[in-house]
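Posted in: Protein Modeling Q&A

I'm a second-year student putting together a small comparison for a lab meeting, and my supervisor asked me to include a predicted structure for Ankyrin repeat containing protein. I've never done this before, so apologies if this is the wrong subforum. The sequence is pasted below exactly as I got it from our records. If anyone can share the structure token output, I'd also love a short note on what stands out.
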Amino acid sequence: MVLRIIVGARRPLTVGEMAMALGLATSRNAKIASEACLKVNRLDEKIRRLCGLFVFIKDSKIYLIHQTAREFLTGKVDRSPNFKWYLQPNITEALMAEICVRYLLTDDLVSNDGEINWADHFRDILIPDAKLMEWVWELYRITTDRFRLWFANFWEIAMPYHEDTKMDVLHLAAFNGHQNILCEMAMNERGSIDATDRSGTNALQWACMQGHSEVVPQLLERGADVNAEGGKYGNALQAASGQGHRKIVQLLLENGADVNAQGGQYGNVLQAAAQGGHFDVVQLLLENGADVNAQGGYYRNALYAAVNRRNLEIIQLLLENGADVNAQGGQYGNAVQAAAQGGHFDVVQLLLENGADVNAQGGYYGNALQAAAQGGHLEIVQLLHDKGADVNAQGG
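Accepted answer (user: helix_wrangler)
Welcome! Here is the predicted structure, written out as tokens:
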């Protein structure tokens, strides 16, 4: 069991944390963490004795000797089928989920050390037992003080750049990718499938954003509106595109998602994919009719977003598919000025080779030459000059 916990943990555990994990794993009825916890004294010696050469302990933290040890123990490398050390991943995830969930349910919970990982462990279980499901449902009771205690830290770590949001069970299960919870909800017909949380985001959008490719079809089968609007990304397709989840993007398109829908932080799906640097998604969207020059959103257009990202492959792909190299918009007015102010010589060169107007006016600096000069990018200044930039142009 000790080795299974070491392998299953998402990060190296301290000896003290191992004492707690072992205690919770071996005393299913304990309701107080301090009582369940084993004695730390000489536990490190026992761990070394039980696990042999697979582990080492440094600064009270327990480590596997090497990543290949994990692969060997979990069957990712060839070994005898009767190998006694084989740790079946599904059993390991079930054990880790139980430990984390049990810890969060203890009556004397004072910290939230398991608030993130329990959701991952539970998601990876094929068929959780009834007791574990009961415990997980207890964590999903969103009106309790216990939920408020663990969820605040969970959200801060899981989504550090998103403000705290009020979720119901449907949204949280979709966010976590917990198919078993969603299945039980479907059987009990709990709540509207397209309901939104405080941020305006629905369950389908959360699942798409998080990349839960098994949950997305589950929600679609239950009747989720593939083009429902709202939330940071505006719709499910933009959420999946912005995060680079190609498989989900393909699934949404096959189920009628509007590839040119407007809305959300990035205005459209192509801009979202371009700003994320997701070449394969940009390519897929273009193949399915995305408007390469669609305007709107934070960067105004997909080319500007790709330039900001300094992604030459996506810039080239967009240009080959008809992107207007001189489209106006954004803080710096046009793509070449944006590239010049960022000091991206290779991007400026590519844009000029594809017809960018070296003297285009507009934006914060007025023109690309002013932008490059203000940033001290002498090589770009020289390049622009060689391409005919007007040194007397006013602006900025």
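A couple of things worth pointing out for your meeting: The chain has a mean pLDDT of 88. Residues 325-396 form a domain with the Serine Threonine Protein Phosphatase 5, Tetratricopeptide repeat fold (CATH 1.25.40.20).
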